[in-house]
Each structure stands twice: as C-alpha cells, then as structure tokens.
Amino acid sequence: MEHGYHGNTRQGIDISHYKYNHQGGSGKMEYILQAPMPKVFGSGFSSEEEASLFYFEKTLEEIQTHRNEIGAFIAEPIIGCGGQVPLPKTYLKSIYPAIRAQGGICISDEVQVGFGRLGNYFWGYEMYDIVPDIVILGKPMGNGHPIGAVITTSEISESFENGLEFFSSFGGNPVSCAIGEAVLNIIEEENLNDEAQKTGSYLKKLLKDLGRKYPEIADVRGEGLFLGVEILDEFNQPDKNRAHYLKNGLRKTNILIGTDGPEDNVLKIKPPLYFNMDNCNTLVSTMEILLQKK
Ligand SMILES: Cc1ncc(COP(=O)(O)O)c(C=O)c1O
C-alpha cells in the first residue's frame, strides 16, 4: 500500500512504500505491487463509496494483470504513515476476495492500531467487517516491553510443520508472554478500549470544533485514540510548516504529538490509552493558543 510502513527488516522495507520510496530508499522491487492509498479526504470524491470503488478498481487492475502470482496483500486498517488515513469503508471487503480468488492471503498490520486504541474496534480490521488470514501485532502488546506476535489460521501455521524446524531464540519467551498477558488483563479490567472510545470521541469533537474556528484545520479523522488532523494553507495546499509549528509549540509545553503523511502536514495524535478528558482539554486549549498566533 502506498505510504505503508511494515518494518525495517529487508523484507519489511521491500513491502513498505514509506521506506523504499523515501530519501535513501532504493525504490520499489520488481516483485512488489503497489496499491494506491485509498483516501477520502483530499481525493475529490464526495462519498466513501465513490472513493472505495475508484481505488478498488485501480488495485483490481494490478491484481488481474498479475493473476495467480500475488502471494499476499498487506495494509494497515488506518494508514499511520500515510497521515492517519482510514480506508474507505468497503475497500477491503472488495480487495480481500479478489486477492484470495487468485491464491493470495490477506494480512492486517495492527501494530499501531491494535489492542483497543480504536475504541469500538479492538482490532482495526473489525472496522471493515472482514477477517484477515494473518494479523501482525507489536508495539502496544507489551506496553513498552519488546514483544510482537503473528496470529494466523491453523492451515497457515501448520504449513510451517514441513520438517524444517521453525523457531527463534526469544520466541515464546515466558517473561514476555507474562507481560503480554498482563497488558491484556489491564485493558480488560480497566476497560481501556471503552475509555479510548469515550475519550477519543470527545477529543475528535473538540478538534472538529477547533477546525470550525481555524480554517487551517482542514480535516479531523480517525477512530478512538488514533486521530489525524490535516493542516492546509489558504490555497488548500499541505502546510508542513504550520503543522510543525503546532507540533513543536505543543512540545514546549510538554505535550508530545507527531506529524506524518506524504507531505508531513498531518498532526498524529495517539496518546496512551489512559489519556483522559482533562488531558484532551489541555491539548486542545494549548493548540488554540498556538493557532491564535499567526
Ligand atoms: C504499522 C507498523 N507496522 C510494523 C512496524 C514494525 O514494528 P517493529 O518496529 O516492532 O518491527 C511498525 C513500527 O513502527 C509499524 O508502525
């Protein structure tokens, strides 16, 4: 997926447009197909359905050209490095069967969005009413402790039982597993996904209200506590400088957010899940003070 990021290993870079297409990257490998990033905001389409159809058809052309050759399709449910871009609602529901029909498998990268951050959706793929063949997990899984996992079907996991021993030194490490389990327990006991939903909706509303007062806030998008705020200039062009001014201004008051997207003009807001309403008020009122300065 255009602007996708899936890791820093050799293969990770090969499948990450964000890496191979950036400064220092060596370009797309011949064996990789690149699907255009299906965005709604900024695409000129007035509805999710229209955007879905357009991007599905574009990707379908690639799939049909390479029939029986595609091994896998990988995408994040909301494209983080693309600038927190949610996929149009029916996009994956069309792509997944097309990939499977020609023999490929479908992978959901939940490294950024998984583990309740999206509130109503514990896993991002649930937003789109689809079930992947492989789900990859990382970052939030250990709340800072290094642990990742691959979840897959019995059929795929049994395919590793081919006589070649499949293991790694730290695979199944009991300490890491205990930490991973503790994280899941805390999420459940403290209803952190419900909290992410409530706090995220509140924050999204505050940011949208702010956008009505300050036109440079051109779009507020995302789910739960995984939000993006796209900053444009008076000519409706990406305004990286203004986005960086906001990010750096917030940092001076000890509030850390990021910027991302192809033009680096999208504020990326993904705080810890215990972020609360007071924290939202502080974030947005500080943003407003910065926005008032020209
Ligand atoms: C969406 C996504 N996928 C995969 C990865 C790779 O995870 P790791 O750095 O643990 O290899 C990252 C890391 O930033 C990520 O954001």
Report on the architecture of this protein.
By secondary structure, the chain is an alpha+beta fold. It has 2 domains: 10-189, Aspartate Aminotransferase, domain 2 (3-Layer(aba) Sandwich); 192-293, Aspartate Aminotransferase, domain 1 (Alpha-Beta Complex). 37% of the residues lie in helices and 14% in strands. It is built from 9 helices and 10 strands. The chain has helices spanning 10-14, 17-20, 48-65, 91-101, 154-158, 174-189, 192-213, 240-252, 277-292, and strands at residues 72-75, 78-79, 85-86, 105-109, 134-137, 149-152, 217-223, 226-231, 258-260, 266-269. It has a 4-stranded mixed beta sheet. β2 and β3 form a beta hairpin. α7 runs parallel beside α9 (277-292) and α8 (240-252) packs across α9 (277-292). The radius of gyration is 20 Å and the shape is globular. The structure holds pyridoxal-5'-phosphate (PLP). Pyridoxal-5'-phosphate (PLP) is lined by residues 5-7, 76, 80, 109, 111-112, 138, 148.
